[in-house]
Design brief:
45% of the residues lie in helices and 28% in strands. With 127 residues, it is of the alpha+beta class. It has two domains: 10-44; 50-126, 2-Layer Sandwich (Alpha-Beta Plaits), CATH 3.30.70.1150. The chain has a four-stranded antiparallel beta sheet, covered by helices on one side.
């Protein structure tokens, strides 16, 4: 097994330690491996999409005042059929969108959302 050195901010370290505790892992490495496997599974689901796709996109944004999601939504307005925006605690927001899209456009939108690094949670539930 290889050893990899990474840098994490305080919030990520707290989250990692919380994952370790909740799942009963002996060390942080086990928690990191689980997170990598979860991301791998999500990436495989996204890349397996083809043709016309419909479903629900759920996002929790870290900061209500940051307009990054509005920019992405405007770019993909043809794919978003219905949208719900709700304010949460600590200046976070919940975005729920009904999506009907060609798979490539949805994949592009999901990649844009993930690349910002500004979402606490992103998942697409295919209908």
């Amino acid at each position: 097994m290889s050893i990899v050195s990474i840098s994490l901010n305080d919030e990520s370290i707290e989250t990692l330690e919380d994952i370790q505790k909740r799942f009963g892992f002996k060390g942080r490495s086990e928690a990191v491996r689980m997170a990598i496997n979860a991301a791998k599974t999500e990436a495989q689901v996204i890349e397996s999409l083809e043709g016309m796709v419909e479903g629900v996109l759920i996002i929790v944004k870290k900061d209500h005042s940051d307009p990054w999601m509005n920019i992405i939504q405007a770019k993909h307005e043809n794919e978003i059929k219905t949208q719900l925006h709700s304010h949460l605690r600590d200046h976070k927001c919940l975005e729920v969108m009904v999506i009907s899209s060609e798979a490539g456009r949805l994949t592009s939108m999901l990649k844009e959302i993930h690349l910002t690094g500004k979402a606490d949670y992103v998942t697409f539930v295919k209908s």
